[in-house]
Amino acid sequence: MASNTTVKCPPPMKATSDGAFQGDNPLDYALPLVMLQICLVAVLTRALAYLLRPLRQPRVIAEIIGGVLLGPSALGRNKKYLHALFPPRSLTVLDTIANLGLLFFLFLVGLELDPRSLKRTGKQALSIAVAGISLPFILGIGTSFVLRATISEGVSRAPFLVFMGVALSITAFPVLARILAELKLLTTDVGQMAMSAAAVNDVAAWILLALAIALSGAGHSPLVSLWVFLCGSGFVILCIFVAPPIFKWMARRCPEGEPVDEIYVCATLVAVLAAGFVTDSIGIHALFGAFVLGVLVPKEGPFAGALVEKVEDLVSGLFLPLYFVSSGLKTNVATIQGAQSWGLLVLVITTACVGKIAGTIAVSLLFKVPFKEAVTLGFLMNTKGLVELIVLNIGKDRGVLNDQTFAIMVLMALFTTFITTPLVISIYKPAQMARSEYKNRTIKRKDSSSQLRILTCFQSTRNIPTLINLMEASRGIGKREGLRVYAMHLMELSERSSAILMVHKARKNGMPFWNKSQDSGSNQIVVAFEAFQHLSQVSIRPTTAISPMSSMHEDICSSAQRKRVAMIILPFHKHQRLDGHLETTRADLRYVNRRVLERAPCSVGILIDRGLGGTSHVSASNVEYTIAVFFFGGHDDREALSYGARMAEHPGINLNIVRFTIDPKVAGETVRLDINDQDRPEARSEDEEFLAEFNQKVSKDSSIKFEERIIKDAQQTIDVMRSYNRCNLFLVGRMPEGQLVAALNRRRECPELGPVGNLLISPDFSTTASALVVQQYRSQLPLDSLNSLKEDDTTEGEYDSQ
């Protein structure tokens, strides 16, 4: 009877259904099913990433866990669910789309890897990379003998040895870069070393993987492996000679500031697919062709950025997570049963960690790296990720790894990456190591001839002319050591994986590390600052902070502490439109400013940029500015006036100081709204002493005019301030003290600017002058100052619309 039975194969899936009303089940058709799969995967992985955010885990952890949960290890135990959402006949379509997404993602990974940075890798980083590959590789081969004798009997020896060695020796370069950025370690020696060593490791891993694939596809003759490897090498050499000239020609035809022609982007993406086809035909997997082409694309100019912009969001957001599901569907943790299997899992994890960490620590100590930093480096180099999964999946598809070995290796990759962040946080605390005490935390100081250090922050090139002209004004009497400026470019590290490209851009010109070299490359920001440094007598150190906006304030404050600056100058979160009104540039920048004001280790100024000196640098001989300081009283006003006095040393600057005092006749009748010792006698005496000392110093300086105005009410105060609207720059305190200020306190569009600063940005106050709102450093800010930073901005939209 058995010989007469026929097996009915399920029909192939059609692409689209006629709809549920026609009696079709959408899940029986390829397109609706794959759309549902993508939606499910995207929602689950994003939800897991959100839940893991407090643990500061990279997104790849959430994606691996999401893939495992959707597979037979968790939800897939329910066969009804598994056959409905991931039926076997749909897996071909799922795997095809997942691998297509992976193909373009590996192109982006190659795009992030700068081959020239490998040439500049020092002996120390190279030695760490070699030790971090060779020792785990040898231990991986040793582990493979144990696995072959127990759960992997019958597999080919040579491919299995190489696959295990590669799997244990990989360091995931993109994942490591994300972790370093998240932990604020990119600017440390450990971060630099880890990135350099990981880049070398990444390239070596791909070469070893090519060897493993060549061996695993040997067929009947060992000569086939040799032929595959030689053809693969020939393809890489051909690409090295042919691709760069073509890509450079394309890049030259894409000038900065203009949109990249769509034909060049399309041609490059077609070339990626063609390269993938060639390497797949050779027998070393389509991913290699895409990766090699990505490495060879020139990193300068807008061309690389345009490729990332066109490809990344769709690929990494929607298609790449499918690869983790494809991997998760092959991962069945239930196959790890019994003491032997769990013992082997512990053995693999221990071998992976000991090989990587011990090898890295040993070489680091030989180079006299401090022990804590060496251990941190070891844990960082133990990071696994997407490349690890690619190795394991290729091994599974080639029959080198069985279900149980595959599940053990996936859990090993997950565990080693998961422990990296918490262990590094507990061991290495550069912020505490860098904490130092220093005296000059304010502009106001006893020795006015000592060097002034300022950290200026900017987010776009729009702010640079004003910043440079402000530095020119701040240099005082022009002594060589008189002023040192650290110019920090604030760059947001988003969830996009290719944000690591920013790290390469930064590294190319000495950023994000404090720029000690003169090699500024083509970066227009650094060029602008260096040109100013050569023309003036100001020492400039450009740098970059690459961080999520939610923690950007930490980078700013720690850099200020490390560099012992007296003032941080922050950009206001609004810019001036052509009609003169201010509109919001970035709303989240105002929260960065507020957090810096709360936690700064020195004085802080917020710069409201209305184009001080125009759109270009004004040379010292052409500077002709009038600066107005409005003095009501208090710490912040004294700091603003001290800064104004510093600027007045410049021969091209006139300083007008207006002191507002309340008319004694109305002082007794005024309602005291600010009772928190704002008008205390000791505060008045400090102001009197400061002004007396100031007047004594500048009495013979004709460029400084001091005027005292007796005021009856708030309107008269505003009228006096309006009379100075033709000056070039206002200098005001953030939280001035006194009864007059209480009357001005009714309008709070931007609490971080204080009452006078808010008046200067009001649409009713017509001026073309920039303004610097100053907060003096105090070890503990007063309660009213802290409370003002927590106020809601109820009128933000009202002013933006005007």
TrEMBL record:
Gene3D superfamilies: 1.20.1530.20, 3.40.50.12370
Membrane topology: Multi-pass membrane protein
GO CC annotations, alphabetized: membrane
Domain Cation/H(+) antiporter C-terminal: 626-778
Domain of life: Eukaryota
Transport in keyword set: yes
Transmembrane residue ranges: 29-48, 60-76, 96-113, 125-147, 159-181, 193-218, 224-243, 264-297, 342-367, 374-394, 406-428
Protein family per UniProt: Belongs to the monovalent cation:proton antiporter 2 (CPA2) transporter (TC 2.A.37) family. CHX (TC 2.A.37.4) subfamily.
Localization per Swiss-Prot or TrEMBL: Membrane
Signal peptide: none
Protein name as it appears in the record: Cation/H(+) antiporter 18
Domain Cation/H+ exchanger transmembrane: 44-423
Record-annotated Cation/H(+) antiporter central domain positions: 482-622
One MF term in the entry's GO annotations: antiporter activity
Swiss-Prot/TrEMBL keywords: Antiport, Ion transport, Membrane, Potassium, Potassium transport, Transmembrane, Transmembrane helix, Transport
UniProt record, GO biological process: potassium ion transport; regulation of pH
